[in-house]
């Protein structure tokens, strides 16, 4: 294992205070009570690129705060992107990552749009793997949760001009998590056209830190009204976009409709679900803009009624079944509010692959040796 002794003198090490954050006491962690909140683990990793845009070899250090100047571009102008991944302990005891190269590729696309040097795929996967291994004791037992992996890339260099920083920091930290919404229990969602998550030709497709803070207020209001989250619509208020942290899909008449839009995040779970549906379950998939009226059975879809099943997909959210949706004061129920059979099959398939309970015909999982 790499330790804080290795790569001593790296720029990364000089830009953090290793060991300054106390890790959670392992003995006091209750795996069955994990939600999606902060738990500090002992090690983090990272690398820094200077003006030449070349990242140094990664260093794994004891977890600590970062030395960020007040003039850092990320703080002042939001030059910050991230990824979300999970390592899972399988039923066979092996630790698996899920499609890490897809996260590396999306991280690189996000970096390019925000004018930061892209972290090369090898460095991305090496850092993730080393940090997971270093914190392996914090990976929940099989079926009890996951080790959530958070790679972050941000402009740490000082700027006053609204322009890219000359120094970019890549950090990977990990922590155990349980369910994000309610796991495999149905949630209620509020469809909303008073707030928009992303502009039509903006950066909604980028996993930018700045896409999330604007969703805090709508989500806070929705939670206050008893909903788990908000379903955002496009700029015309016609098509479904996504939930603030997950993509949206529904089942109607045996077909799977997966919402697409240029301004939403291209989810890796969404992509995996579509392949499983088409190739393993033989379900027809309609991957296109999806009208809210089609979801709710309104307007020209009135004779069809609301979706038979609805769910959202994401690394944190996994597959979260949606039992009902509120729109303009009316409540619509999908499949009697219960978990739909296709939703359950998709969950079982993807969860089975991620935990080694089922074969992985696509080679999506990477075992951390
Ligand atoms: N949409 C948003 C806004 C997200 O933050 C996420 C989570 O990463 C997703 C969708 C789902 O993406 P993925 O399945 O790659 O985790
Ligand atoms: C993820 O699913 O990994 C995400 O990044 C969403 C996050 C807001 C929890």
From TrEMBL:
<comment type="similarity">
    <text>Belongs to the class-IV pyridoxal-phosphate-dependent aminotransferase family.</text>
</comment>
<dbReference type="Pfam" id="PF01063">
    <property type="entry name" value="Aminotran_4"/>
</dbReference>
<keyword id="KW-0808">Transferase</keyword>
<dbReference type="InterPro" id="IPR043132">
    <property type="entry name" value="BCAT-like_C"/>
</dbReference>
<feature type="modified residue" description="N6-(pyridoxal phosphate)lysine">
    <location>
        <position position="207"/>
    </location>
</feature>
<comment type="pathway">
    <text>Amino-acid biosynthesis; L-leucine biosynthesis; L-leucine from 3-methyl-2-oxobutanoate: step 4/4.</text>
</comment>
<dbReference type="GO" id="GO:0052655">
    <property type="term" value="F:L-valine-2-oxoglutarate transaminase activity"/>
</dbReference>
<keyword id="KW-0663">Pyridoxal phosphate</keyword>
<dbReference type="GO" id="GO:0009099">
    <property type="term" value="P:L-valine biosynthetic process"/>
</dbReference>
<comment type="pathway">
    <text>Amino-acid biosynthesis; L-isoleucine biosynthesis; L-isoleucine from 2-oxobutanoate: step 4/4.</text>
</comment>
<dbReference type="GO" id="GO:0052654">
    <property type="term" value="F:L-leucine-2-oxoglutarate transaminase activity"/>
</dbReference>
<keyword id="KW-0032">Aminotransferase</keyword>
<protein>
    <recommendedName>
        <fullName>branched-chain-amino-acid transaminase</fullName>
        <ecNumber>2.6.1.42</ecNumber>
    </recommendedName>
</protein>
<dbReference type="GO" id="GO:0009098">
    <property type="term" value="P:L-leucine biosynthetic process"/>
</dbReference>
<dbReference type="InterPro" id="IPR033939">
    <property type="entry name" value="BCAT_family"/>
</dbReference>
<dbReference type="InterPro" id="IPR036038">
    <property type="entry name" value="Aminotransferase-like"/>
</dbReference>
<dbReference type="InterPro" id="IPR043131">
    <property type="entry name" value="BCAT-like_N"/>
</dbReference>
<comment type="function">
    <text>Acts on leucine, isoleucine and valine.</text>
</comment>
<dbReference type="InterPro" id="IPR001544">
    <property type="entry name" value="Aminotrans_IV"/>
</dbReference>
<dbReference type="GO" id="GO:0009097">
    <property type="term" value="P:isoleucine biosynthetic process"/>
</dbReference>
<dbReference type="InterPro" id="IPR005786">
    <property type="entry name" value="B_amino_transII"/>
</dbReference>
<dbReference type="GO" id="GO:0052656">
    <property type="term" value="F:L-isoleucine-2-oxoglutarate transaminase activity"/>
</dbReference>
């Amino acid at each position: 294992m790499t330790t804080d002794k290795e790569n001593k003198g790296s720029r990364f090490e000089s830009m953090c205070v290793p060991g300054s954050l106390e890790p959670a006491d392992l003995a006091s962690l209750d795996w069955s009570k994990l939600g999606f909140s902060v738990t500090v683990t002992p090690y983090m990793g990272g690398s820094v690129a200077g003006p030449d845009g070349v990242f140094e070899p990664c260093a794994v250090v004891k977890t600590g705060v970062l030395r960020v100047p007040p003039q850092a571009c990320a703080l002042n102008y939001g030059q910050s992107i991230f990824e979300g991944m999970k390592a899972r302990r399988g039923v066979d005891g092996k630790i698996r990552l899920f499609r890490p190269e897809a996260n590396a590729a999306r991280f690189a696309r996000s970096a390019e749009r925000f004018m930061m040097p892209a972290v090369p795929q090898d460095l991305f996967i090496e850092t993730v793997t080393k940090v997971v291994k270093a914190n392996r004791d914090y990976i929940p037992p099989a079926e009890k949760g996951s080790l959530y992996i958070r790679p972050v890339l941000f402009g740490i260099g000082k700027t006053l001009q609204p322009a890219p920083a000359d120094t970019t920091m890549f950090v990977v930290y990990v922590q155990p998590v349980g369910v994000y919404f309610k796991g495999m229990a149905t949630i209620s969602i509020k469809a909303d056209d008073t707030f928009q998550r992303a502009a039509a030709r903006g950066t909604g497709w980028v996993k930018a830190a700045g896409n999330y803070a604007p969703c805090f207020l709508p989500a806070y209001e929705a939670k206050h009204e008893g909903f788990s989250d908000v379903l955002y619509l496009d700029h015309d208020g016609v098509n479904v976009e996504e939930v603030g942290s997950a993509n949206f899909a529904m089942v109607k008449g045996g077909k799977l409709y997966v919402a697409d839009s240029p301004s939403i995040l291209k989810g890796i779970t969404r992509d995996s679900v579509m392949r499983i549906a088409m190739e393993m379950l033989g379900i027809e998939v309609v991957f296109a803009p999806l009208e809210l009226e089609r979801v709710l059975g309104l307007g020209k879809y009135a004779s069809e009624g609301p979706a038979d099943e609805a769910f959202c997909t994401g690394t944190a959210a996994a597959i979260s079944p949606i039992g009902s949706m509120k729109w303009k004061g009316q409540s619509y129920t999908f499949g009697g509010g219960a978990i739909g059979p296709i939703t359950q099959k998709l969950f079982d398939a993807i969860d089975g692959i991620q935990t080694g309970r089922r074969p992985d015909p696509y080679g999506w999982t990477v075992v951390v040796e």
